Amino acid sequence: MTPIYPNLAGQKEQYLISALKAYKSQERKGGNAAVMWGLAAGLSEQDIEDLAAYYASLEPGS
């Protein structure tokens, strides 16, 4: 884990979906948003849902 990056394990699935969609559309700004815009740009709706489900299923802090 790197302290400058958030730990997504255990985050609420709907929050992660919302955040990834906001990065994809470049509506979310600040911090490392520009990096996330590039990463989220190529994600499909299914990719976003799958990633959110995966991170939500992990134990917080793992």
What integer is the average pLDDT?
Answer: 93
Uncertain residue ranges: none
Principal-axis shape: globular
Strand content range: under 5%
Task: Determine the fraction of residues in helical runs and give it as a percent range.
Answer: 40-55%
Distance between the termini: 9 Å
String of helices and strands: HHH
Number-wise, the strands total 0
Which structural category do the helix and sheet elements fall into?
mainly alpha
Characterize the biggest β-sheet: none
Radius of gyration: 11 Å
The helix tally amounts to 3
| Structural domain tally | 1
Describe this structure in words.
With 62 residues, the chain is mainly alpha-helical. It has one domain. It contains three helices and no strands. The chain has helices at residues 13-24, 33-41, 45-57. Helix 1 crosses helix 2 (33-41) and helix 1 runs antiparallel to helix 3 (45-57). The longest helix is centred in the C-terminal third of the chain and has 13 residues, at 45-57. The protein is globular and about 30 Å long. The mean pLDDT is 93. One of its GO terms (molecular function) is heme binding. Keywords: Electron transport, Transport.
